[in-house]
Write a structure and sequence with these properties.
About 65% of the residues lie in helices and about 0% in strands. The protein has about 100 residues and is mainly α. This is HEAT repeat domain-containing protein.
Length: about 100
Amino acid sequence: EKAAILEDLANRPEGELLEYLDQIAELLRGGPSAEVKTGVCRAMANAGENAVPYCQEITALLHDGEPDVKYQACVALAAMGPHASTAAAYVEGLLEDQSE
């Protein structure tokens, strides 16, 4: 259910999405499912540079066990632009990772 709500929020116009970024980031607490994590990343990617305050939370997802979560975290960080450059070393580490 949360994943479906996140998908809806991620597809809303930027102005509406920005109102919910705090609540969206809060969904990462408490060990959410991979679907929720990827939904959070999609929403943050759609928010672009406005999601920079959540860069640390998204960077933490680069260590997730699910390849899709890692991928969506990379997409979200890329959408944040140069302000997310602190995550660059982690992304480089993923490129060297031999797993999926």
